[in-house]
Write a structure and sequence with these properties.
The complex is a heterodimer of chains A (1022) and B (454).
Chain A (H helix, E strand, L loop, with lengths): L1 H14 L7 E10 L10 E4 L5 E3 L5 E7 L4 E5 L6 E4 L8 E3 L9 E3 L4 E3 L7 E5 H4 L7 H4 L7 E4 L10 E4 L12 E4 L2 E2 L23 E7 L2 H4 L10 E6 L5 E16 L8 H14 L4 H11 L5 H4 L11 H5 L3 E13 L3 E13 L6 E14 L4 E15 L23 E2 L4 E2 L2 E2 L2 E2 L8 H5 E21 L2 E20 L4 H4 L5 E24 L3 E24 L14 E25 L3 E12 L8 E12 L4 H4 L4 E15 L10 E3 L17 E4 L8 E14 L4 E13 L2 E5 L8 E5 L2 E14 L5 E11 L1 E6 L5 E3 L3 E3 L7 E4 L1 E5 L6 E4 L13 E2 L8 E4 L5 E11 L2 E11 L2 E4 L2 H4 L44 E3 L2 E12 L2 H6 L4 E15 L20 E2 L6 E11 L1
Parallel strand pairs in A: 1-7, 13-16, 52-56
Antiparallel strand pairs in A: 1-4, 2-3, 2-5, 5-6, 8-9, 10-15, 11-12, 13-14, 15-16, 17-18, 17-57, 18-19, 19-20, 20-21, 21-26, 22-23, 24-25, 26-27, 27-28, 28-29, 29-30, 30-31, 31-32, 32-33, 33-36, 34-35, 36-37, 37-40, 38-39, 40-41, 40-42, 41-50, 43-44, 44-45, 45-49, 46-47, 47-48, 50-51, 51-54, 52-53, ...
Chain B lengths: L1 H18 L12 E2 H4 L3 H15 L8 H9 L5 E3 L4 H8 L7 H22 L6 H26 L35 H18 L10 H14 L3 H13 L22 E5 L9 H6 L10 E3 L1 H4 L12 E4 L1 E4 L9 E5 H15 L8 H11 L10 H12 L5 H7 L4 E5 L2 E5 L12 H6 L11
Antiparallel strand pairs in B: 2-4, 3-7, 5-6, 8-9
Helix pairs in contact in B: 3-6, 3-7, 4-5, 6-7, 7-8, 8-9, 9-10, 10-13, 13-14, 13-15
The chains are: A mainly beta (1022), B mainly alpha (454).
């Protein structure tokens, strides 16, 4: 409905103006104030029109000025814009000063751009400069700590795996919480094609050195233009484009090494035997039984554990066996340039990263070509295309015995190599030697790889129908072809369960295409009314298919293909399509340079929604007031900028199952295998219908203040927001007696509230350029209503009313009874008078489950300092997360006071030994379950501060580069994750195990720590 | 000219706007819309096959039900040394309301019941020749699931008053959408047994004598013998067992070992979960098999058990060493899982005959017991008493999921030594009953929780 109205309105506008009078011609040259060099590609506009041009390769421009127009506006990214009175001159030369002021930057806002000072919504911008050449794989990792309210968490140090990003908290319980990523106007595929939770990160297919700017749309007024997919925020990636002028060639290479950020300490052989002998005695088991076990681990040789004087005495530090020195190498080459008519940017990149764990690496080769061509004064066309191949050598998820860090469970008296077999200690003669599968066996006897081909491309055409009105059409696609290969040889049988080997292959393809068609109207009426309107539509279709198969019983380990398997088993296929049809419009109005109004709306239809609720409408409104333009502030020299803004609007979340609204029958059973039986076909009802299913709706309010002092040498932004999500898309538990466990429904509410602070200062003096950028944000998440439902996940995570999403709920550990060494728990039952019973019990079943921690940080923040002094640049970024807890799900195995034969963390030596001992570690009792229940015993504060990035570089003086016939030579060194400050005792506080999904958050489970990386690099410009 | 351009543009633009609307109607490819899934006789047949698949899911008769009966009934014969939390709790007899296995058993059993209720609701489209068989199979599956549920989640039949003890909800209507009627209450133990017997009796009438590896008349009778045995209705139990034996359709395998690890049904399998290379579930192998035999090696056999056999008994050697000692009953991953063997019928008939005295049905208890001992190469008895009959049952059926049920119906006490401590559980200890899963009591306030888990 409203789309037609808007369209007519636009046509009306476009028809109502167009008279062109006599013009006069102005020419000139634009140079940089810094070195006097000519500046190509500078926009020269005549104020009050959209008429203008840009400078050519030598910085020259020529423009015709209509009668009655008297002001030239000159803009170039990175320079302060200028306005000049034309007067009577016909030649105007211009000198541009490098910008120190972010307010004049142009910000990409989705279907267009806006000047930052004119924004009425909250958009964080990160320029490519600040993140280029960081030794990380993907964009999300690169921007960690650099944008207020944007929480980025790499759950694991395994290279190539997915990263979690939360913009202003999690807005959903069951639907997705990741933001929408849009690259050059095209929504990207960001969920991986596989089904395993430790899937590769699709964002790692993008070389972020090709990205010019990253904008993060946070509040409703910014994100509502993306309607049903705006609730989690929107990340806009804009790739680099050529500028007319001299062709510039940029070559960059860096190389570095990495190692784990943290280590844990485990018992050595003497400590191990002492603790477990004691544990067995305490539980009434024989000492001999334990000694037999030690000898079994010690490959049958008692001296390895019993006789420290023996040459055979063994003390294996298993952790050392799976960590290694990682490495990273990356080469980037890009060429850009062009003429007035045609501009190009081309790049190629090769990156290889060997992780800090055995058998874990990532390789990417990618290239990009972006072209823009002016067909005529009115028509521009362009194409962006990138292709990439990535190759990821992967690891099992954290819950597998074969994942490297589970090796720490092995006993220290086992030698790495069993001399009887000459192979890794694992099994001998069909009998188990080590307690668990030894992950080292995987090194030579298995492989697990993912190869992805990713092509992103789009073409656009832009038609400037009349000066004030243009039409742009975009067609883009994102294709991904992914191939997973896994092979497990005979020797992995203890883990793979396949005595004759197994091969698995999965081919997954995604074809995701999108078209955007929209009109932009831009005009200033009477010098005072600045109007910008867009209206258009978009359509997206994404189809995902996959085929996988397993082969078993291979003749020998030399055969590694499905074709060689005597048994072909478990072949599967998958096909899913979803579509979005959308109409959108936005109006921005500025009156008298002071008063800002923004209105936007989007109508989204999706195949994912039920038949009764196909379309949703997502409106937003915002206002801003630039007080510094008011006469009462204009003369206050100290205050250079002051703006208040407020916005309110609605966004949606549609990240749900593609066919969640339909009643379905499936030929697959609940485990994903055939619903047939012994080769006879079968089917079953698999899902109940819900024709009313629709998107989640988030109403967001944002109030912001932006201020600049002393010519914006100090600028600050403060925002307060509330996000209220209703109609939560929830897999609601239904009585299992119905034959179904859950039904996807729109019930429940949650909210996020928070503050965001940004402070930028320019502390430069003399030749020292020094800028500081600080951001901090709070977010408090609270579930308001789940219709009484409690959703559990992880070890102790829950979604429950009145608590933040993922809250840890469980028994509260009360330490150790000094009298007898029993683990104690607070009863925490509610007494008749309403108070909590804080007496203790040694029966965990009598201890009430209570909220004991929060996986969500209270504060996140970062601070970056950039220094530049005569060619030497130095910068560092600290990033931190405060007020969250992490639960060690493996605590019951690794810190269990000798409950079972898993090697124990060193702190378990502090166990209770005799009456009167005051300690937090209960008496050692073999299979006694003394304190091993999931409880707050294994919960820890996990706040941390990291020296995320520190880099130092040196730009060779021009005199030398000129002699080398180069335009730029910079050598630099960068360190990532160099220092971590935390009280968390695990490997790394930034952790979220890769095998748990749903409401699980903040869990550690043999999860690999982050890498600490140091690189040196060279950057050449030709 | 200008106007024309705009006109063309306006038309083109409106076309783009309208041409996509029907694209929102995307049909699933991998699954089928519920409305069109059950239209023909073969659709119903596929649904029935789906019920067999669902019934033999790992969490039901694919092995975990049997595993848990052995774990919770253990008195030191075996050791759980796995890392899975849920079976660990079951072994320790310290289940929490959140026990994942209790939840999975509940959900998957009722899922199976819903599938067969859909079969029963759609019998009208079934070919006349198949109707009775489908109805019989569906009722048998429904009865079997209700029977397992009531044994696991409620007081045993002989504990107190079954007519008032809460059992499990009886569900006989397929679910199309969730209404108030889905918030069911627990029927009494007696009601559940009644429903089970009614379904099985009807199934025995409806089913053919032979039905490939699917349920047949004898499967229904064999299950009835189990149900009656739990009720201590020894006459009905021995009669039902006798009906199976006298069909002559089943014979004991020549040697004991031939009854296990078979890719197809053995001659004594009355009903077995089918495992093929393409499609198999065998969680008994997963937990009882050593890692060298595709298992996790989680359940090891203790000397206490190994020493209980006669030396000459082949069954005493049906174990293997792979680091620790494991039972040889579940050595193969891809193999059928015998769910009811003829040997059990002999044992049930013998027990019934012995307990009731008088003229035996079929043959004497001594003859039935010796038949099994003879097959196992064990010394034959000259006379039997109840303890020897029950002991024989243990030797023959060990690790096949009968443990806790035999303990409960015989009102035995589990006494278990763990190191220096000795623990005991009476047959009616609440610790030997699974909690109603917390998710169920949370979502359905009509469900009451079991004693000891409130």
């Amino acid at each position: 409905m409203n789309k037609h109205l808007l369209f007519s309105l636009l046509l009306f506008f476009s028809c109502s103006l167009s008279i062109i009078a006599q013009d006069r011609r102005i020419t000139g040259k634009v140079v940089s104030a810094g070195d006097g060099s000519p500046l190509p590609g500078v926009s020269v506009q005549i104020k009050g029109t959209i008429k203008g041009t840009s400078t050519d390769a030598t910085g020259n421009y020529a423009v015709s000025v209509p009668a009655g127009k008297s002001i030239l506006e000159i803009r170039s990214v990175g320079f302060n814009p200028q306005s000049l009175q034309i007067g009577s001159q016909s030649i105007i030369n211009i000198t541009l000063v490098e910008s120190e002021n972010s307010l004049d930057e142009v910000v990409v806002v989705g279907y267009g751009t806006q000047k930052k000072s004119n924004l009425t919504g909250n958009v964080a911008q990160i320029s490519s400069k600040s993140i280029e050449n960081l030794p990380v794989l993907s964009t999300e990792q690169a921007i960690q700590g650099r944008a207020a309210g944007v929480f980025v968490e790499s759950g694991n140090g395994k290279v190539g795996q997915g990263i979690k990003m939360r913009i202003r908290g999690a807005s959903s319980v069951s639907a997705g919480n990741e933001p929408l990523y849009v690259i050059d106007g095209i929504p990207m595929t960001t969920s991986a094609a596989g089904s395993a939770p430790n899937t590769p990160n699709p964002m790692a297919d993008i070389n972020f050195n090709d990205v010019e700017s990253i904008e993060i749309l946070k509040d409703a007024s910014a994100a509502a233009i993306y309607g049903a997919r705006g609730s989690n925020g929107v990340v806009l990636l804009t790739t680099k484009r050529g500028k007319s002028g001299k062709t510039s060639i940029n070559l960059n290479y860096f190389s570095g090494i990495s190692e784990a950020t943290g280590h844990r300490q485990f018992l050595n052989t003497a400590q191990y035997t002492e603790l477990f002998t004691e544990a067995r005695v305490n539980s009434g088991f024989s000492v001999a039984g334990g000694e037999n076990r030690f000898t079994r681990y010690a490959v049958g040789e008692k001296a390895r554990w019993s006789d420290p004087t023996s040459a055979k005495y063994t003390n294996t530090n298993w952790e050392d066996q799976v960590f290694r020195k990682g490495s990273i190498n990356q080469l980037d080459l890009n060429i850009s340039g062009g003429t007035d008519k045609t501009k190009f940017y081309a790049s190629g990149s090769y990156s290889k990263q060997d992780g800090i764990l055995i058998k874990n690496s990532f390789e990417r080769i990618s290239s990009r070509l972006n072209l823009d061509h002016k067909v005529s004064d009115k028509v521009t066309i362009g194409i962006n295309a990138s292709v990439a191949r990535t190759f990821n050598t992967r690891l099992s998820n954290d819950n597998a015995f074969s994942t490297p860090l589970q090796i720490i469970a092995l006993a220290p008296m086992a030698p790495v190599i069993d001399p009887r077999s000459g192979d890794y200690s694992n099994t001998y003669n069909g009998a188990d030697v080590t307690q668990y599968y030894n992950p080292l066996v995987n090194i030579d006897n298995s492989s697990n790889t993912t190869e992805t081909y990713r092509t992103l491309g789009n073409v656009y055409g832009q038609w400037n129908i009349i000066p004030a009105l243009s039409f742009r059409t975009e067609y883009g696609f994102d294709m991904s072809f992914r191939n997973d290969d896994q092979y497990f040889g005979k020797k992995t049988v203890r883990n793979s369960t396949q005595p004759n080997g197994e091969v698995y292959k999965n081919n997954a393809n995604i074809f995701n295409y999108n078209t955007n068609n929209f009109l932009t109207f831009n005009k200033i009426f009477d010098q005072k009314h600045d109007l910008n309107v867009i209206a258009g539509m978009s359509y997206q279709q994404s189809k995902r298919t996959s085929v996988d198969a397993t082969g078993r019983n291979l003749p020998s380990d030399a055969y590694k293909t499905i074709a060689s398997g005597a048994t072909k088993a478990e072949a599967n296929s998958f096909e899913r399509t979803f579509t979005f049809l959308s109409y959108f419009s936005r109006l921005n109005y500025k009156f008298d340079n002071k008063y800002l109004l923004g209105l936007s709306g989007r109508v989204d239809g999706s195949s994912r929604f039920g038949a009764n609720n196909r379309y949703g409408f997502f409106p937003a409104a915002s206002v801003g007031w630039i007080l510094s333009e008011e006469s009462f502030l204009k003369n206050v020299r100290q205050v250079s900028f002051l703006k208040v803004r407020a916005s309110y609007g609605f966004t949606g979340n549609a990240e749900i199952n593609n066919f969640g609204s339909l009643g379905l029958y499936s030929a697959q059973n609940a485990d994903g295998n055939s619903a047939g039986y012994a080769g006879i076909p079968g089917q079953r009802p698999s899902q109940l219908e819900n024709p009313d299913l629709k998107w989640e709706k988030t109403a967001q309010t944002d109030i912001g203040l932006e201020v600049g002092f002393f010519n914006n040498r100090i600028s600050a932004e403060v925002d307060y927001y509330t996000k209220h999500t209703t109609d939560l898309l929830l897999n609601v538990n239904i009585p299992g007696t119905s034959g179904f466990g859950q039904l996807l429904k729109n019930v429940g509410e949650l909210e996020n509230r928070g503050w965001e602070f940004v402070l930028r200062t320019d502390n430069s003096f003399g030749d020292l350029k020094w800028r500081t950028s600080f951001n901090a944000a709070t977010n408090a998440n609270k579930i308001l209503n789940l219709q009484g439902q409690v959703i559990t996940g992880g070890f102790l995570n829950r979604a429950v009313e009145g608590q933040p999403l993922g809250v840890f709920v469980g028994p509260e550990y009360a330490g150790v009874d000094p009298a007898n060494g029993d683990a104690l728990y607070y009863k925490n039952t509610t007494k008749a008078d309403g108070s909590m019973d804080k007496t203790t019990t040694n029966d965990v079943n009598l201890a009430e489950n209570t909220p004991i921690g929060n996986p969500n940080p209270k504060w996140i923040g970062g601070i970056t300092n950039d220094f530049n002094y005569k060619g030497i640049d130095f910068s560092f970024t600290f990033q931190g997360v405060y007020g969250n807890d992490v639960y060690n799900g493996a605590g019951k195995f690794m810190s269990a006071n000798g409950d079972f034969y898993d090697n124990q963390t060193l702190d378990q030596l502090n166990r209770w030994k005799k009456a009167g001992d005051i300690t937090n570690v209960p008496q050692a009792r073999y299979v006694g379950g003394n304190g091993t229940a999931e409880s707050s015993r294994y919960l820890e504060k996990a706040s941390y501060t990291r020296l995320k990035t520190v880099s130092i570089g040196y730009l060779l003086p021009k005199s030398i580069t000129d002699r080398l016939k180069l335009t730029k030579v910079r050598i630099y060194a960068t360190a990532n994750n160099l220092l971590t400050f935390t009280k968390y005792t695990g490997w790394d506080p930034e952790v979220n195990t890769d095998y748990l999904t749903g409401v699980a958050a903040g869990n550690d489970f043999y999860s690999a720590p982050q890498p600490k990386t140091i690189t040196v690099g060279l950057n050449l410009g030709f | 000219m200008k106007i024309n351009n705009k006109l063309i543009f306006a038309v083109a633009f409106s076309l783009i706007l309208t041409s996509c609307a029907d694209k929102l109607d995307v049909k699933p490819v991998d699954d089928v819309d519920a409305i069109s899934a059950v239209k023909t006789s073969s659709d119903v047949e596929a649904l029935l096959t789906g019920a067999y698949d669902s019934m033999t899911d790992a969490d039901v008769l694919g092995g975990n039900l049997q595993r848990d009966a052995e774990l919770i009934g253990d008195n030191g014969d075996i050791e759980w040394q796995g890392t899975f939390v849920a079976p660990g709790e079951i072994f320790e007899k310290t289940l929490l309301k959140t026990n994942g296995q209790a939840q999975a058993t509940w959900l998957d059993s009722y899922r199976t019941i819903n599938i067969v209720n859909n079969v029963l609701a759609n019998l009208t489209v079934v070919d006349a020749a198949k109707k009775a068989r489908f109805e019989g199979e569906a009722k048998l599956i429904r009865a079997w699931m209700h029977f397992e549920l009531v044994r696991v989640f409620a007081k045993t039949y002989q504990d107190g008053t079954p007519a008032s003890n809460p059992g499990v909800p009886i569900v006989t209507v397929p679910t199309a959408k969730i209404t108030d009627a889905n918030f069911v209450s627990r029927n009494t133990v007696a009601e559940v047994y009644q429903a089970v017997i009614a379904d099985l009796t009807s199934a025995e009438t409806l089913l053919p004598a032979k039905n490939s590896f699917f349920a047949n008349k004898s499967t229904a009778a064999a299950l009835l013998s189990r149900v009656y045995l739990m009720q201590a209705n020894y006459d009905a139990a021995r009669q039902a067992a006798n009906r199976v034996i006298t069909t002559g359709n089943y014979t004991l395998t020549e040697t004991f070992d031939l009854a296990f690890n078979n890719p197809t049904n053995s001659t004594e399998d009355i009903f077995a979960a089918q495992g093929t290379d393409q499609d198999y579930v065998n969680s008994l192998n997963t937990f009882f098999g050593s890692t060298a035999y595709s298992g996790r090696g989680d359940i090891i056999i203790n000397d206490q058990h190994l020493n209980s056999y006669d030396v000459s008994d082949e069954r005493s050697n049906f174990f293997y060493q792979s680091g620790d000692i494991y039972t040889a009953k579940w050595m193969r991953l891809v193999a059928n899982i015998p769910l009811i063997r003829l040997a059990e019928m002999y044992l049930t008939r013998a027990e019934g005959n012995f307990r009731l005295g008088g003229t035996p049905v079929g043959t004497t208890a001594l003859a039935d017991i010796n038949r099994l001992r003879n097959r196992a190469g064990a010394k034959l008895y000259t006379s039997v008493d109840l303890p020897t009959i029950l002991k024989e049952r243990r030797f023959e059926l060990a690790f096949e999921g009968h443990r806790i049920h035999d303990i409960k119906r015989n009102k035995q006490t589990i006494i278990k030594k763990s190191g220096s401590t000795s623990l005991s559980w009476a047959f009616n200890s609440p610790k030997l009953i699974f909690p109603i899963p917390l998710r169920e009591t949370d979502v359905n306030k009509n469900l009451t929780q079991n004693e000891g888990y409130q």
